[in-house]
Structures are given as C-alpha cells and as structure tokens.
Amino acid sequence: MAEKKSWILPVVILAAAAVLGGVAWYFRDYFEPPPAQLLPLDDCDLHKGACSRTLPGGGEVIFAIEPRDIPLTRPLELIVQTKNLAVDKAEVDFSGVSMNMGYNRPLLQKVAEGRFEGEGLLPVCIRQRMDWEARLILRTDRGGFIIPWRFETVK
Fold first, then answer.
1. Which of 64, 71, 68, 75 is nearest to 47 (CA)?
2. E strands of 29-106, at which residues?
3. Are 97 and 144 in contact (CB under 8 A)?
4. Could you tell me the sign of the dihedral formed by the alpha carbons of 7, 10, 16, 21, in that order?
5. b/e 8-38 (16+ beta carbons within 10 angstroms → b)
6. Percentage helix, strand, coil, to 5, in the chain?
7. Which of 108, 119, 122 is closest to 80 using CA atoms?
8. What is the pLDDT of residues 126-146, one digit of tens each?
9. Edge-to-edge strands, sheet with 60-66
10. CB 152 within 8 A of CB 131
11. What spatial distance separates the first Cα and last Cα of the chain, rounded to whole Å?
C-alpha cells in the first residue's frame, strides 16, 4: 500500500512549485520592474508646480503633485501628461533619500490619451524635514523610462 502512494508527494511538490512560479511571474513587475532608462535629476521644484522633461528620442512628460505643499499622511493627487509618446503604464515610486520609508509605488490610471492620474500618500517620518525622491516609471512602446524628481516635506 505504501508503494502506491509514493508518487503523491513528488506530484504535490511539483504542483506547488508550478503555482508559486506562476504567482511570482504574475507579480514580477511589482518586485523588480523591467529594465528602463534612468534619466538624470533636474532642479525642477514640484512645490512650485508641474515639472516637464523631454525624453531621449523625443516626447515630453509633465508631472505634478497636488496639493503643492505635498503634505504627509494626506491624499496626494498624482498627474502625468505625455506628449508624442505612447505610454502603456505609469507608476510613481516614492522613496526616502536618506531613510528607507518602505515600498510606496501607486499605479496611475489612464484617464485620457496621454494622461494618467492616481492617488498617493506619504507616511509620517520621525524627522522634522524629510527629503524624498519621486520616480515616475513609464512603460512605453520605446521601452521603459524612470524619471526622478526630488522634493522635501516638513511636519
């Protein structure tokens, strides 16, 4: 009787491995986004209004955070407008510059051709003043682009 059931354990292990592999493949972009071209920082101030960047090879991206004072623990409206660029997916990855603030990457929804919007939230920090980097991650027909902007918050 024990000889007949000896095949069950390897089949269960194989099935579990297949399921776990499928789950990892499905969520692959959440943990490690596909390769993308990282653009250099510029000195645009998101507190003063929308920031614009011209992409290598053409196209323009305009990014804004509302309200402009960028408060902590309150909903932020994230707005992306693109020109001459076919964008499939847009996300904003918020990270602390000098302190790890955890995973914080809201996915923006396409609301019109060339326009994406979404909501984000910055957690409270133990520091009075915190430096942040907002990395706009775009998936386009020309590959991926990561466009960083830095800003600060004060509690």
1. 68
2. 36-38, 51-54, 60-66, 76-83, 87-96
3. no
4. negative
5. eeeeeeeeeeeeeeeeeeeeeeeeebeebee
6. 15, 45, 40
7. 108
8. 878 899 999 999 999 889 999
9. 36-38, 143-154, 129-140, 87-96, 107-112, 115-120, 76-83, 60-66, 51-54
10. yes
11. 69
- CA–CA separation, 148 and 92 (whole Å): 9
Asked if residue 153 lies in contact with residue 129, where contact means CB atoms within 8 angstroms, the answer is: yes
Residue type at 23?
A: V
d(CA 20, CA 25): 9
Residue 73 one-letter amino acid: T
> 3-class DSSP state for residue 148?
strand
Q: Give me the residue label for tokens 């991650």.
A: 137
d(CA 45, CA 53): 13
- Output the pTM of the full model: 0.77
pLDDT digits (tens, 9 = 90+) for 93-109: 999 998 888 889 999 99
